[in-house]
TrEMBL record:
GO terms of molecular function: ATP binding; DNA replication origin binding; lipid binding
CDD domains noted in UniProt: AAA, Bac_DnaA_C
Role: Plays an essential role in the initiation and regulation of chromosomal replication. ATP-DnaA binds to the origin of replication (oriC) to initiate formation of the DNA replication initiation complex once per cell cycle. Binds the DnaA box (a 9 base pair repeat at the origin) and separates the double-stranded (ds)DNA. Forms a right-handed helical filament on oriC DNA; dsDNA binds to the exterior of the filament while single-stranded (ss)DNA is stabiized in the filament's interior.
Chromosomal replication initiator DnaA C-terminal domain sequence ranges: 383-452
Quaternary structure and partners: Oligomerizes as a right-handed, spiral filament on DNA at oriC.
Protein name: Chromosomal replication initiator protein DnaA
Originating organism: Leptobacterium flavescens
UniProt keywords, alphabetically: ATP-binding, Cytoplasm, DNA replication, DNA-binding, Lipid-binding, Nucleotide-binding
Keyword Nucleotide-binding: yes
Length: 475
């Protein structure tokens, strides 16, 4: 049989594989390529200097035994270090290091590439020893599928998440992009997928990271000249979860490095999960090539939960906290807090707290006060200008028409409605409302409010105008 670099290396690999853990084999030996065989020296190509140091540090004995079996006592190993993703530098950086010349490498705990600023957070990059290669997943076990309640608003995203968790990298949902507004469960779902994967496939390396932290680490790595280690680290991951990728907007360096990491992971059948507060089409200042990658897999939207889902989220929260609450209160909270699960939880938590601190019964009255606070605090201030704009748009006229002196009935009605809503939704005085809506006096505004009240009771069509406009103005 012809002895080639490849055949020698393959024999070495099968020996090595039998002697170390599968995960370690996969991480440190699969990426190696054999390059050349001259006499009794075999050249192998490794992806970074860091990689070479790690092999020398941890596997030199094993390598020696393996190679001696193949090439005899005088066997030599030559490393070729090849950075495959060297950006802005087309010529790969190549360095040959004969293993016999190596200086002794100090035993070290790997600390690549960046230290965390806050000490209480675990450094995601500490790999505490070869026998137990472990990258801290940074997952929050409290965010799991079990307590991520299903509803029409999240069904697609949730089941795509479950499919990905069952077969990471093995579905067409790669990347899986979960998008939706604030407080709708993106972070929760992202963790849940990771937690589920860790549960099903403990040997897989999962990493959750916010786009913001990823960016900080990248910038730091550039400063410290450890960009290749940064890239290398991320290329080792089986399931990469990046939260809030809209944060990459306008950050071309980070986008570039992420693009390369993404391609590497994707090509190697690794799973990527992303979240964003916008759909890919609405993302700004993100490079086209990256956006097109986002669209390769599945984009699934999280929408505002419907009433039933809001009720079950509330019930579940109360159940987990072991708190009982009258049905009418749950119903009241679910009816009045509509857009955001975080607020929904916030309101119920304050309710529980209020009632236990003050030893008060949770009454509908207390619920009303608390919900009002929540809704008021989050509602954007409506201005008189805005009201005039909304009312004019609704009746398809210009603001100047609405303010004009004309006595045409439909214009007068629009003007009166604008005054009525200005009184209802702002703290402005009658006089001030009058002066802003076509320079009228306070008596005119008062008359307008009374007229609207009357018509609301007697005129069905007019009632509908009020309801429609109330909805538009409370959005
Ligand atoms: P986002 O990342 O989209 O801003 P989060 O994932 O932080 O939102 O969710 C906000 C809060 O709402 C979290 O406490 C989360 O547990 C909760 N939440 C969101 N969606 C659900 C759901 N479907 N079931 C249960 N809790 C949810
Ligand atoms: Mg979030």
């Amino acid at each position: 049989m012809n002895v080639t670099a490849q055949s020698v290396w393959e024999n070495c690999l099968s020996f090595i594989k039998d002697n170390i853990q599968p995960q370690a084999y996969k991480t440190w030996f699969e990426p190696i390529k054999s390059v050349k065989l001259t006499d009794n020296s075999l050249s192998i190509q490794v992806p970074s200097k860091f990689f070479y140091e790690w092999l020398e540090e941890h596997y030199v004995k094993l390598l020696k035994v393996a190679l001696t079996r193949e090439l005899g006592e005088n066997a030599r190993l030559v490393y070729v270090i090849k950075m495959e993703n060297t950006y802005g530098n087309k010529q790969p950086f190549t360095e040959k290091i004969p293993s016999s010349n190596r200086s002794h490498v100090q035993p070290q705990e790997l600390d690549v590439p960046i230290k965390n600023k806050s000490p209480e957070l675990k450094n995601p990059f500490v790999i505490p020893g070869i026998r137990n290669i472990k990258i801290e997943s940074q997952l929050n076990p409290n965010y799991n599928f079990e307590n991520f309640l299903e509803g029409d608003s999240n069904r697609l995203a949730r089941s795509a998440g479950l499919a990905v968790a069952n077969k990471p990298g093995g579905t067409s949902f790669n990347p899986l992009l979960v998008f939706g507004g604030v407080g709708l469960g993106k972070t929760h779902l992202a963790h849940a997928i990771g937690v589920e994967i860790k549960d099903k496939y403990p040997e897989k390396t999962v990493l959750y990271i916010s786009a913001e932290k990823f960016t900080q680490q990248y910038i730091e790595s550039v400063k410290k000249n450890t960009r290749n280690d940064f890239i290398h680290f991320y290329q080792l991951i089986d399931v990469l979860i990046i939260d809030d990728v809209q944060f990459f907007s306008g950050k071309t360096g980070t986008q570039d490095v992420f693009f390369h990491i993404f391609n590497h992971l994707h090509q190697n059948g690794k799973q990527v999960i992303l979240t964003s507060d916008k759909a890919p089409v609405d993302m700004q200042d993100i490079e086209q090539r990256l956006l097109s990658r986002f669209k390769w897999g599945l984009s699934a939207e999280l929408q505002s939960p419907d009433y039933e889902t809001r009720v079950s989220i509330l019930r579940n929260k109360l159940y987990r906290d072991g708190v009982e609450m009258p049905e009418e209160i749950i119903d009241y909270v679910a009816k009045n807090i509509k857009t955001n699960v975080r607020e929904l939880e916030g309101a119920i938590i304050s309710l529980i707290a209020q009632s236990s601190f003050n030893k008060k019964e949770v009454t509908l009255d207390l619920a009303t006060q608390i919900v009002e606070k929540f809704v008021k605090n989050t509602k954007r201030e409506v201005s008189i200008d805005y009201i005039q704009k909304v009312v004019s748009d609704y009746f398809q006229m210009d603001v100047s028409t609405l303010q004009s002196k004309t006595r045409k009935r439909h214009i007068v009605q629009a003007r009166q409605l604008a005054m009525f809503f200005a009184k209802k939704f702002t703290k402005a005085s009658l006089a001030s409302i009058g002066s802003q809506i076509g320079k009228r006096d306070h008596a005119t505004v008062l008359h307008a409010c009374k007229t609207v009240d009357n018509l609301a009771e007697t005129d069905k069509q007019f009632r509908k105008y009020i309801d429609d406009l109330t909805k538009k103005l409370s959005q």
